[in-house]
Write a structure and sequence with these properties.
Metallo-beta-lactamase, Chain A; five-stranded mixed β-sheet; alpha/beta; seven-stranded mixed β-sheet; single chain; 26% strand
């Protein structure tokens, strides 16, 4: 959302590197924002095969086709596999027509030779890296618009963004969780992740947690739950909200070095912490 170097927008994308693997999580809103930012920051995406799309909203999937068409010039495998949660292709009808961009994107992406993998349950992408798949909603966080509708096999219902998923890394320091928007609720996501990988602290949270409009009571409750999870680092990007990051940081007792508002080029490095500025080359 914020930018010192590069272009900021209301959207999200993160490159995850672990044990020789590279995975892109979400692709931003406008078609070329992530592509232009990657070029300006000196980040080569041509050897990234897999992309995780956390949910169907345009501010997370808008750059997929542009990125795929650009990087595949260097080889057909670049960004050729897209991992999605079950429900991402459900129709979202409205008075203005279909609102789910993934229905059209699916056809165009597959026409490039790309392949979607739908997940209904937690899946290990590579050793120590897990996709949550759709997250059970144990707590009533309700981090969505509450006005949209989705056509499911059971009929037309409130669109709770059922496909919302996050990437969870099981590291030597604890869990590192990368969230696109956290529509399932960041505490629901952590609760689910810690059931799959029990007895581990949450070392770091990175991404959007959809708390920008949250009331003080919800922020306090969220922070208290994060404290129970022993959260050490927070990079609250995109829809987390600047004020929300500050309030959670204060309640967790974290420092300005360990809890920041995410921006273009910011990085989190295991064992080092947060580098809030432009990516170090």
């Amino acid at each position: 959302m914020l930018a010192d170097a590069g272009l900021g927008e209301w959207g999200f994308s993160a490159l995850v590197e672990a044990d020789g693997h590279r995975v892109l999580v979400d692709t931003g809103a406008r078609p070329d924002t992530v592509l232009r930012n990657a070029r300006e920051l000196g980040v080569d995406l041509s050897d990234v095969k897999e992309v995780v799309l956390t949910h169907n909203h345009g501010d997370h999937v808008g750059g997929l086709l542009t990125l795929r068409r650009d990087v595949m010039k260097n080889g057909p495998n670049a960004l050729s596999v897209a991992h999605v949660g079950k429900g991402i292709f459900y129709p979202r009808p409205s008075d203005q027509g279909e609102t789910n961009p993934m229905i059209a994107i699916r056809k165009d992406y597959e026409a490039t030779g790309g392949h979607f993998v739908e997940h209904e349950q937690p899946t290990e992408l590579f050793p120590g890296a897990w996709l949550t798949g759709p997250v059970p909603r144990v707590y009533p966080e309700r981090n969505w618009s509450v006005t949209g509708k989705v056509q499911t096999p059971s009929g037309l219902v409130e669109d709770t963004i059922p496909e919302d998923q996050s990437l969870v890394l099981n590291t030597s320091h604890g869990l590192v969780v990368v969230s696109g928007c956290g529509h399932a609720g960041i505490i629901n996501t952590l609760t689910f992740a810690r059931k799959q990988l029990p007895d581990l602290p949450v070392y770091a949270l990175v991404g959007g947690f959809h708390l920008f409009a949250a009331k003080d009571s919800q922020l306090d409750w969220t922070a208290d739950k994060l404290k129970e999870s022993k959260t050490s680092y927070l990079v609250g990007a995109h829809c987390t909200g600047i004020e929300s990051v500050y309030r959670i940081r204060q309640r967790l007792g974290l420092s300005r070095q360990s809890a920041v508002v995410g921006a273009v080029g910011a990085t989190f490095v295991l064992g080092e912490g947060i580098h809030p500025g432009r990516i170090a080359q």
